[in-house]
Every structure is written in structure tokens, then in C-alpha cells.
Amino acid sequence: MPTLDEELFPSTPGKFKIEQRSYGINRQFYRFFASTSTMFLWALFLIALTVSYLSFQSFVDSGTRYLSASWGGLQWEKQVRTSAEISRSGGMSVLVTGASGFVGTHVSLALKRRGDGVVGLDNFNNYYDPSLKKARKALVNRHGVFVIEGDINDARLLDKLFDIVAFTHVMHLAAQAGVRYAMENPHSYVHSNIAGLVTLLEACKSANPQPSIVWASSSSVYGLNEKVPFSELDRTDQPASLYAATKKAGEEITHTYNHIYGLSITGLRFFTVYGPWGRPDMAYFSFTRNILQGKPITVYRGKNEVDLARDFTYIDDIVKGCLGSLDTSGKSTGSGGKKKGPAPYRIFNLGNTSPVTVPALVSILEEHLKTPAKKNIVDMPGNGDVPFTHANISSARIEFGYKPTTDLQTGLKKFVRWYLSYYGYEHGTPVN
């Protein structure tokens, strides 16, 4: 005979019908708890499946990022080492950030030509035409400089570079440039000029040996200062733009790393650099383009209709200052991130000491382009620009013999010649 259990719960569902009410109630409870347990188990299964999928997806994403990285591998490491090789007695191995930027390109070429080892780093952002940066990269590549596409905020990349090469110096030129663009995209300035600087300094302080660092500050730090010419001893606590504020912050941050970690650091306050391979966002560059295309240019003027004036500094003179700063930078004193003694901390103005008004600049361009400009003269808006700049360069002259030699007339002539050649103009007419 079947047991009571077998009668109540037959192996084949629906084999018989339970007639008693109490049994019916018990069966309903059983079905309820059975279905609840099943749902709970299914929920656990789905949760586990979801977690597994997300973990796998994260692994795939990480792997994809690693595989798609523009750096790494044996061939890449070989290129880095080859580019960093020193070919002169007493030479240096230099990591140049922003190596496909305007100043970075010229500094990289000058270092390589004299026999120093140079490795470049640039993120090729689209603040201005990336094709110009790619052309600069091709130029330095032809001279034996390997430029890595990467960001100074990538700590893993920086650590890898310092593992491969014992850089003696870092020339830090990577930055988000431009005064007016800061009003459109302020976060890019914090990302590059502050966070990026700290990431680089962290890599340098942990390197063994620690490199000496020369980096690009800006004449913009003088802000609303009205005393001329601008001296390194003048106040710099009244910035007129976010760009200037990030550069001032950079000076304070570098001082801290020098004080705590013994990094040798030199800051260079550039004054309106111009020349071949320059930045398209600069006034002299856009003026040239618009004059050739027959478009009007906007010329700003200051209060009381006073002409704006800038201490325009030709790129070759800036390069001399950069190399002089590297050559006299002194050594860092830290090891393993710990300071063992005081290290040099310096700041220098690099300018031409001969301010020229913007209308005078336009007149020189008209002369070299053999084309009159259509000018719209308007009052300067409150966009962070300052009415004038003028550098006192006595400190740089005393320290490493800095002496600019190119006046604006000569410098713009060289720029115009390059511009017409690069963009395919002949006597002001586009070449088909």
C-alpha cells in the first residue's frame, strides 16, 4: 500500500485530487512557499549572472583600453631608448612634454641638433588644428625625435617612461594655452595646467635619479600689475584670467615640490611667443590668415583708446632661454621621493624687452604680405586680456646670458615666409 506521504504528494502531479479542505489549505501553503523559494533562487541566479557579466565586461573594457593604447611593447620601448640616446659629451636626456606644440617642437629640434637625447610626449588635442601638430611631429621625427601620443595625466605612462630612460631633465611645455578659451572650457585648464603638472611632478619625485625640471609658466601671471617692465619680484597675486591663475598655481605647486622633495625646478615666464610653426589662435597668426583671405581683422584697444602693446618674442630667442635654463638648472637632491638637501628653485622672464603696439604689428604684416588689412577697431572686452606686457630680463641675462636678438620686423618676415610656404600661398594667392 502506498504510504501517507506518497498519497499526499504523488510523484506525478495531478494523479489524484485532494478532497479534504485541510489538505487543500496545506497544499496551497506548500505551493506558495515552493514558488517563493524558486523565485528567490532565480533572483540569486540572476544577480550572480549580472555581477559576472559586469565583471567580465569590465575586464574586456580594461583589456580593450590596454590593447588600444598608443604606447607600449618591445618595439615602442626600443624607439624610446633610441630617441633618448645622447650623442655628445656631457649631453643630457630630456623628456619634452608638449613636444608637438609650438615651443616644444623648436626646443626638441634644438636639443637633438646639439646631441642631446630627446623623447617627446603630446596628447594632440583639438584646441587648434591637430593636423598642424601632426606636421610638427613629422618634422621632429625626421630629425630623430620620437614623440609619444599620450597625456601627462597618465601616471602609468610616465612611470613607464622613467623606467625605460633615466632622464636627466624634463622640459615641461604641455599645457592648455589661451586666455580667452578659458571662459569657454575652464575645466580643460585645471585638467592640464594643474592636475597634469602634479601628475608629472609625482613621477619626477619618485624617479631615481630625479630629473631637473624646467617648465613653462607665463607672463600672464603678472595680471593686473601696472609696474613696468615686469620683474620676477613683482606681485603676481592678481590674475586677470583663469589661464593666468592656473599658471600662478603651477608656480606655487612647483615651489612645494622643490621644498619637500628636493626637485630642481625652473619656471619660465614666456612673453608672447611668435614665429614659424606657431599657434593659429595667436593674433599675428589669425591676422595673417584673414588678411590673405580678404577678411576683416579685429583690433582691440584699451581704455581711453590706448593701443594694446605686447613684448613679442621670437621663437629662436625663447629656445635660447629654454636651453640656457636646462644647462644651468642644477641637480635635484631627492632619492626615492625623499629630499636629501636643498635644490635650486628659479623663475625667469623670457621676453624681448621691446613692446610693440598691435596696430604696429598689423602694419608690419601688411608690408610683408603686400596686402592692406580691413580693420575693425573695437574696445577690449573683459575676457582676461591685459593692455600691455613688458619683460625685465636682467635675471636671465645674469644667470645664463640670455639675450634676444630678433626684432619684430625680422621675426614676422620669417613667419610670413613660413606661412606662405606651409599653406600653399604664392604672392598672397592660394596655390591650386
From TrEMBL:
Its EC number is 5.1.3.6. Keywords: Isomerase, Membrane, NAD, Transmembrane, Transmembrane helix. The keyword Zinc-finger does not apply. It is a multi-pass membrane protein. Coiled coil: none annotated. Pfam families: Epimerase. GO terms for cellular component: Golgi cisterna membrane. Its main location: Golgi. One of its GO terms (molecular function) is UDP-glucuronate 4-epimerase activity. Gene3D superfamilies: NAD(P)-binding Rossmann-like Domain, UDP-galactose 4-epimerase, domain 1. The keyword Membrane applies. Residues 94-328 form the NAD-dependent epimerase/dehydratase domain. It catalyses: UDP-alpha-D-glucuronate = UDP-alpha-D-galacturonate. It is found in: Golgi apparatus, Golgi stack membrane. InterPro entries: Epimerase_deHydtase (IPR001509), NAD(P)-bd_dom_sf (IPR036291). The chain crosses the membrane at residues 29-56. Homodimer. Belongs to the NAD(P)-dependent epimerase/dehydratase family. This is UDP-glucuronate 4-epimerase.
